[in-house]
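Schema walk-through. Below, the input block comes first and the output block second. Nothing else is stored per chain. Lengths vary across the set, and this one has 181 residues.
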Amino acid sequence: MKLTAVPGITPVSLSSVERTTAELHTLLIRLRGPDAERDLGLETAAIQAAERAHEHRAGLLAIVEHRDADPALLLAGSIPVERPLSVESAAELSWSAAETAPGIREVSTAKTARGYPVVIVERIAVDGPGAQLQAVVLDPGRPRAAVFTLHSPGGRGWLDVAALAGTLVAGVDLSEPARVP
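--- output ---
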């Protein structure tokens, strides 16, 4: 999977859990301002995100930032599926997600700039502020899918950070070997 660089999306190293945690924590402090160094919740969030990225063998962990929004975390990776998936499979997957998952606000399908079908699931937190978006890019030529998960704990400016993540997803190239900007 090849991803193009998008201004406002800053990837962090995935070389080790410790390095990922340190880079992510530094970015979160920069985004939150000088008082953030005393916020132990930021360090905990960085540790949890780094551990999750490594546990799931993510190809990308990044901060998505927009001047009018809370920062969001973006996690992406490629997963195997039983068989190559088609546009019809995408529609079936979107219907299933909408029927079975709590907090789903909207499920839609689209195509990337290269014509890959995408299932987009937007979830709003049911127990407080926050929002999550998942985009599953299907590879009709191979039994795999690229999964992008965007999470904003605060939810302020959600549409702005979601649009940035959408720009990244729209440009994904599944024919290329793994490369992250």
